[in-house]
Design brief:
By secondary structure, the protein is an all-alpha fold. Helix content is 57%, strand content 0%. The chain is built from three helices and no strands. The protein is elongated, with a radius of gyration of 30 Å. The model has no long low-confidence stretch (mean pLDDT 77).
Length: 115
């Protein structure tokens, strides 16, 4: 069986990381610029396009998830208080401190029925 946490694999990963670090350090010394600078070079346009594409993708996923949610709600799969009225859902050790102590603060339906 192949495991990723064996000492040999860890040694290879460390060796590869150190080679990359040496290469980056050598290139930055030779070019006179920092290797990971945010200067106006040829890569900045690529990263700007990637960022714009990411925003478009996330926006599209938001619209899609909203549509899926609305389709789900339209089919009547919402929460039904009468069908899901289990005794453990109204378990209280003491009454609430407002006028109708058995109802939650913003539960208007319960307030109308019990108070």
């Amino acid at each position: 069986a192949h495991t990723t946490s064996s000492p040999l694999n860890m040694q290879r990963a460390v060796s590869a990381a150190s080679r990359v670090a040496r290469t980056v350090a050598t290139q930055s010394k030779a070019s006179g610029k920092r290797a990971f600078s945010a200067g106006h070079d040829t890569d900045s346009g690529m990263w700007q396009n990637i960022s714009i594409g990411g925003f478009v993708f996330v926006g599209g996923m938001c619209v899609y998830e909203y549509k899926v949610h609305m389709d789900h709600v339209a089919h009547g799969h919402g929460y039904d208080r009468e069908a899901n009225n289990f005794p453990y859902m109204n378990f209280r050790l003491k009454q609430y401190p407002w006028s109708c102590g058995d109802c939650n603060l913003f539960d208007a339906k319960c307030m109308k029925e019990k108070c």
